[in-house]
Amino acid sequence: VLRLLEAQLQDQRRNHEEEMEALRSELDAMQEELHKQQQASLQTLQLSPEVQVELGLQQEITRLTNENLDLKELVEKLEKNEKKLKKQLKIYMKKVQDFEASQTMLPADRRPHDSNMQVAVQRKEKDFQGMLEYHKEDEPLLIRNLIT
């Protein structure tokens, strides 16, 4: 038992030392990055105001470009999800139609009781025009209601 405990202790010590070494190398890399950023900041402060403005604009353009790319990825992901959900909706609508068709073919005495079936709500046909306006936080609820 003592040998087993010693072996476990040595394994833990070795793992701890490896983890400490990895953390030290990560710390060194971060310190080096910080030093580079400080040097860049000092060089920027020594430049003329026009060049500082130009660099600031370039950084903002880069940030906005990256943000646009992220948003485009998100839009593509949401469009793909929308197509998937529309496909599922079509499948479910087909299943419902098939079920309703099979229910109308059954003789009256073999049909399930109406108390077990859900009530079908009849809606008036309306012509809607324009876009739907909603709050961003209501989007999941809106999507769920659209699907159902």
Question: What do these coordinates show?
Answer:
With 148 residues, this protein is mostly helical. Among the domains are: 1-46; 49-105. Helices cover 75% and strands 0% of the residues. The chain contains 3 helices and no strands. The longest helix is centred in the middle third of the chain and has 57 residues, at 49-105. The protein is flat and about 80 Å long. Keywords: Coiled coil. This is MYO5B protein. It comes from Pachyramphus minor. Residues 2-102 form a coiled coil.
Low-confidence stretches: none
Kindly report the average pLDDT value: 85
Number of helices: 3
Rg, Å, rounded: 32 Å
Q: What percentage of amino acids are in beta strands?
A: under 5%
- The SS-based structural class is mainly alpha
What is the β-strand count?
Answer: 0
The best one-word shape is flat
Amino- and carboxy-terminal Cα gap: 63 Å
Helical residue percent band: over 70%
SSE series? HHH
Main beta-sheet annotation: none
